[in-house]
Amino acid sequence: MSRILAMENGNAAKSRLRPAFLWMLASVLSCAAFLGAQSKSAPTGAKSGEEFFIVSSVDTAKKELLLKEPTEITELLHVNEKTRYTDKSGKEIQFADLRAGDTVYIRSTATPAGKLAVSIRKGPMTLEELHRHYLK
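Now predict its structure.
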């Protein structure tokens, strides 16, 4: 009789552990799927460290750009002789080639005088970039 009770208690313990095991397995699998999705290479468009802006105005005399984020926040950005400018295909362009309404990807650094552009790349906002930055 005690042997039968021990078998029933063992089966009861197993049946209590099964839901906990399944929950843990589901958690591990969902975390693995999330991390796998996060580690995929970045879509075409912005390269690492670049931010997307719309050029609002260009002041060639002061070497400044007034930029607008898609969220309507504006920002003043300075350029200097070390700033690199390229078009969407990677071809070198000049500061004077930038116009209001252009869409650009900018890599910048903070200085005491404000933000300074390290590189400016003209290029469209792709659907993948739109989702990655603003439609999470």
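The helical segments are 2-38, 127-134.
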